[in-house]
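Recall the central idea of this unit: under ordinary conditions, the amino acid sequence of a chain determines the structure it adopts. In this exercise we apply that idea directly, starting from the sequence alone.
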Amino acid sequence: MHPVTGSSLTLPTRLSAPAPGWVTHADVIVVGSGIAGLTAALELRSRVGRVLLVTKDVLSSGATVWAQGGIAAALDPSDSPQAHLEDTLVAGVGLCDPEAVEVLVTEGPARVRELIARGTQFDREADGEVALTREGGHHADRIAHAGGDATGAEISRALVAQLEAVRNDPGIEIIEHAQVVDILTTSGLVEPQDNDEDRRVACGVTLHVRGEGTRDGVGSALARAVVLATGGIGQLYVSSTNPSQATGDGAAAALRAGADLADLEFVQFHPTVLWLGSGARGQLTLISEAVRGEGAYLIDVEGHRFMPGLHPMAELAPRDVVAHAIVAQMEKTGSDHVLLDARHLGADFLKSRFPTICEKLREQGFDLTAEPVPVAPAQHYHSGGIVTNTQGRSTLRGLYAVGEAACTGVHGANRLASNSLLEGLVFAKRAAQDIADRIAAGELPQREALSRPGNAGLVMAASRSAIQREMTKGAGVRRTAQSLTTTLGALGRVRLDADVPEPTSGDHFVVPQSAEWETTNIHQVAAALASAALRREETRGGHFRADFAHSDDQWLRRVVVRLNDAGELVTDLALLTREPHN
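Accordingly, the structure predicted from this sequence is:
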């Protein structure tokens, strides 16, 4: 293991929080209510004695609801899993785990059909078959969609309805408005020297519940296994297509508990996000890649279409290619945006195929049917996360991760469009089956939670905007060693003990609460991401180093980040294939 170059960051191994005031037990805890979390909970409910599903807001608030384009799977007889695999590997630019991709594409069609059986109503052709379209990086029509451009909302509706139907089942408890504070563990070592029994094990979570009834405030939930399905990291940046809940909670909690994170440097900036000026903040309006899939063009502010001369697939090139091309064209024309032109597709077609997008744009004062719409890249998806194998097991025994929070290896350096919903679906079912099998075999006993080494910490919520600005400037679309070192330096100056009483007055600087816990998570994942980006000295996929502008085969390896037993942030290089996890 190597200390992070240019950084001497030592991070808290747990969050400062009140002592738990209540305790509950389950066989498995699932955290998150997007497609991955909902699927895992539904699958586990019939396989283990008791499931606890916790979500930061309400059940229907997961990031899945925002997915516009669709879900990719080889459903057409003229398509094949092999063709889907090849497109995925090309998009991943050499860093996909081939075994994980094969699992994704071969099991994907059956999982989508199960989704239909659970009530998801995809758009249909006149003959009743599922309507399929194409998006960037795909060489076949294999994107199933719903409501034109409301696929995620329909999938979420169907899965939430399934859970609502069993909400009163004694085998499942759903706690809404619940934020995971930390993963509970035994006090074993992250890297035991001799005896594997000394290895640290996950055995539950601490929760803060903002709600009504007996589950309120901070409590402990103990379990044989924990499944993190907490979504992405959008709030690390000034602007993102992610909802406000995407504060990297799962990745940060896993990091503090001792699990490995990987591929953090590969952040997907969606090429076509509505541009509302340099002062725009928060969740921005995404204009789905499916609009380009149906034939929309990108033009610069001078009216020139620029993608056909840069890539054989033009506007349907992989997202990193399109995002980088847009940035280059913006620099060339001295503008801070380009334009998406869909007028030639016709107003009736656009309103029918993309009703949600058209309505959202109208709310912002733009008419997709009548004018080119200003767009620019913004943070959209994270290809990295908590390292898992093909059963969803992390490197920390008892801890699983699925969905965007996980790093399964299927995305490599750049996610192929519409593979994310499929990944959540496929690997959530695999994780549920693995957990059930291990519990039945007695491999996951309930263990005692003990205090682990390291310090508690807290970052004040007021630091969030500064962290986001530093990440956007130094670890955004384009990066250099200087920009990343500057970002890490700024992160290193952030106060990590903001709850410690002031020496003179004795007053607390801040009180531990949700905003501070989220900001601490943002800070920790930002430090890990910037460290990984500094370590990888090449340009590949979603990682664009202006000082190393080309890919280099010596970097066909994975950058792994973890906290050691002293709480030091360290990086290492690993092979792309995965060893069996605990």
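The two ends are 20 Å apart (CA to CA).
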